[in-house]
Amino acid sequence: MTLKEAIRVLAMSGAELYCKICTVDAVDVEARTVDCTPIDESAPLVGVNLQASQDGSVGVVQFPAAGSYVVVAFIDPAVAVVVLCDRIDKVQLDIGRTSATVTDEGITLNGGRLGGLVISGKTAGRLNALENDINELKAVFSAWVPAGTDGGAALKTAATAWASRQLTQTVAAELENDSVKH
């Protein structure tokens, strides 16, 4: 029976919901369940759902930290779900082709295959350096007056100062925020 079906049966039966505060013993990220022990010292709860559908792989799921407290709501004596967490290790969001994972290390969007999110200020600084360099070269060419018999010596003299300053290579790690990957 899915949680949705259990809620429908419960709504028609008039039975009351009840909750227990528990300590998390283990977290199964793949199954999206936890094993936990009620603080009232009643029997441990095994395989408590972290989301509405027992076989779900979409939606929003909070993964509580081992040893933390959770509130477990019972739809009936055999169906329970975690409704609140006091500490979480990870939040997973999956909607269609879009995913986001939030941990204490940062945020990963859609698997993080493209690396860290670009820091716009640093990127703009690097682009401005290139633009300034190109503008300086344009100024050299626009100020240059060809001389008929010098074989390009006047151009070489005008461009020498510009050509002697080398641009530094950009390193991707300098431009990215590695705590937000996309």
Describe it:
The protein has 182 residues and is α+β, with helices and mostly antiparallel strands. It is 28% helix and 38% strand. It has helices at 3-13, 120-143, 153-164, 172-175, and strands at 18-28, 33-38, 45-49, 59-64, 69-76, 79-85, 88-95, 98-103, 106-109, 116-118, 176-181. The protein has a 6-stranded mixed β-sheet. Helix 2 packs antiparallel against helix 3 (153-164). The chain is rod-shaped and about 105 Å long. The two termini are 37 Å apart.
Structural class: alpha+beta
The run of helices and strands is HEEEEEEEEEEHHHE
Please count the helical segments.
4
Q: Spatial order of the strands in the main sheet? A: 4-7-8-9-11-10
Rg value:
31 Å
What is the β-strand count?
Answer: 11
Given as residue ranges, the uncertain stretches (5+ residues, pLDDT < 50) are: none
CA-CA gap between termini: 37 Å
Largest sheet: 6 strands, mixed
Beta-strand residue fraction:
35-45%
Whole-number mean pLDDT: 87
CA-based shape = rod-shaped
Percent helix range? 25-40%
Keywords:
11 strands, 38% strand, six-stranded mixed β-sheet, rod-shaped, five-stranded antiparallel β-sheet, 182 residues, alpha+beta
What is the compact description of this entry?
The chain is built from four helices and eleven strands; from the N terminus they run αββββββββββαααβ. With 182 residues, the protein is an alpha+beta fold.
